[in-house]
């Protein structure tokens, strides 16, 4: 059966059949996505992580559908109603919804109006209505015999009403009719929202009288409307031309208008649509809309999170972190270039205490005492006032010191976590959070992995989407980022290690414990001594774990241990020593070019695949390369602006803090982030803001509008001289 599924997936994703088959087999064997993407390129045809995850998602869906088909077939067969035609339809269904539609007439139901009518013996009368074969006589002639006081059928209308209930359910249960109405509603339907109370619409002013077609409404509006409905501010429905829907069903069901039961059939059709089909299709389509919106919102969140995690670290810098606040003061903490906490205190420059000069003096003393390079300021409450304090403090110094605004979302979550308590048992929660702010500037990836990704604050409506799907997607992003960068096994925390391919939380704790008890790891091979790290976990993880202290050079690179012999063979064929490569990795590629042999020829000599050899060359050329170095660097500042300093037309540099469907929020150094609307990102048409910007990007913007009262700033990335 899987063979057929491979063909379906290959066609859907535009891949070769063997690529799908080999990838699924690797996944079934408990290989991780990062490992497959990095170290099994010959097997998959160099598929990237996104393609591998797409294959995994589709094979699980299709396998689930096949299992569901077997359950459905078995159920219908047990009822004695499985025909060869129905069996073929179910087996050939390509969507789970199609399977459920076909199963609907045979699915055990609660006691419906139609079921009660059948119990009262009205099925034969319903068959007459559906059959449309009676052309002469009167309805009374055929319906009167069904009047039965014992069965509570007291009149001719009782009999006909019961029969119509049976007919309506039969029409509603018809898979082809359901499909017809579903497609028509998708095409013609309009999502309508109205305020329950026009004087109290909360944050949903624009949705108090709103409508948009189902096929065009964007994801963020769906989620906003859903929230408004959930919070009881809005009434929401799907509007569709009812007359058109009923007529489309009549075209299918009414085959002989000369039947004396045509009017009864028309009544049944209208009832089937209004009472059974329309509400079910509305629920189904709204669920589908929400699922689509969830998927889109999660994808946006994931891309923003990835960009944030891959923000380049400020290596070898001493950082002073400040967590701003009013009443409780500003927490101050200094960390060294390794992230070690040195000293901290609390200053009170803002109301109610207003000890501005004292705060300036303390900051300057800390900066001088610890030779601080950069000040990290959390972007929460009182952040801009604190920014002014820092700008004044460093402006009076004899040497150049910079500051940067840091997204502090999730710092409080970290500060109260077991991880933070274990790291800093003697500090209060607020100081732990401040240390986290400073460390986010030093090494964002290592620090942010300690926080639930949902709390990092780079999404939109993240609390409205399916939380399980969101968690799974974001965990995958963190896993991908961690393995792309690689991990120094002798310095990494358990929070970071648990995202390495093949390593779970328990194993991460065991690695740290082993390191604390026995000292640093001096080789990748030594990892095998860690409790719980078996052969499969080692294979998955080893290539992503770096050991700088190892005597074996390859242990500090991305070369996998299974390829060490191939790497040595390459150096021998190129007449290079490990010491030469260690001191000047660029020699590897230049020697490959000078050698004159193709990669295929060299790969054959080295006993590995061409793709693996290409990766070995990349790894040896830049053994300590950090992929984050290619990402936009942190915007370091030396002065400060306020909204009063802004003027329309002003050109500024800013940092992208969040990307959403309708634009991007950019920190330009004033209290409020400015909005670059989708239409102002480029002179060309931009459909998706993520095609243009990512979180952390440093961009040049022009101020378009300033609304001081509402705290809104409009920005543009389009300039007059731009072509």
Largest sheet: 5 strands, mixed
Low-pLDDT runs: none
Q: What do the pLDDT scores average to? A: 93
Strand content: 5-15%
Number of strands: 15
Kindly report how far apart the N and C termini lie. 55 Å
Rg is 33 Å
Helix content: 40-55%
Molecular shape = globular
Number of domains: 5
At CATH level 2, the architecture of the largest domain is Orthogonal Bundle
CATH superfamily of the largest domain: Tex N-terminal region-like
User: Strands across the major sheet, in which order?
Assistant: 6-5-4-7-8
In the CATH hierarchy, the third-tier topology of the largest domain is known as: Tex N-terminal region-like
The first-level CATH class of the largest domain is given as Mainly Alpha
Question: What is the number of helical segments per DSSP (H or I, 4+ residues)?
Answer: 30
- Could you say which structural class the secondary elements and strand pairing correspond to? alpha/beta
